[in-house]
Each structure stands twice: as C-alpha cells, then as structure tokens.
Design brief:
The protein is mostly beta strands and 112 residues long. The protein is built from no helices and 11 strands. Helix content is 0%, strand content 52%.
C-alpha cells in the first residue's frame, strides 16, 4: 500500500531554514506528481507546492513562492521541501502527498 513518511520538521527562528523530506513506498513513485501541503493551528489544509513526475515542473502557493523549493529524487523515491526565510506564519504540520494519500506529517514551528 502507499506509504509516505515525512521528516525534518522542528523549531526554527524567523528567517531560518529547514529541509523536509518525504520517503515514498508502495507505488511507482516516478509516475506521479508529488505535493506538499500544510495545516496551521486552527486552520484548514493549505496546498503548498507541486512537482511533476520528472521534476522539471514545479508550482508554488503565493505564500511561499521565492522562499520554498520542492525537489525529488526518483531513484531514492524521495521528495523534499527546502524552506528558507521562514516566517511565524509558516508554522504548521507539513504533509507530503501523492496518489491521493498523505503521510502523518511533520511539525514545523517558527518562533523566536
């Protein structure tokens, strides 16, 4: 079955950086676009970014454009989210998603 396991979250100061990772298994990873979403405390699920099957096409939400970079390694079945210039409002649980499934999430807290 589809399994997605996120990691790399933590506590970081405003302006800092984090790199999230997502390990995929149970499906032919290279055939599917992958996504990152997030859910801030008390808010709904927000789409963050998408990457195409080969990694050549990426899209970002306006709220993270220019600060976040999505990438993938099809050989390792991994997708990444490099987050820079983090803001307090980026605090959320971040989820990796693909093939209609998502993982358990990883908490990112941006606070001084």
């Amino acid at each position: 079955q589809v399994q997605l396991v996120e990691s790399g979250g933590g506590l970081v100061q405003p302006g800092g950086s984090l790199r999230l990772s997502c390990a995929a298994s149970g499906f032919t990873f290279s055939r599917y676009s992958m996504y990152w979403l997030r859910q801030a405390p008390g808010k709904g699920l927000e789409w963050v970014s998408r990457i195409s099957t080969g990694g050549g096409s990426t899209i970002y939400a306006d709220s993270v454009k220019g600060r976040f970079t999505i990438s993938r390694d099809n050989a390792k079945k991994m997708v990444y989210l490099q987050m820079s210039s983090l803001k307090v409002e980026d605090t959320a649980v971040y989820y990796c998603s693909g093939l209609g499934s998502w993982g358990q999430g990883t908490q990112v807290t941006v606070s001084s």
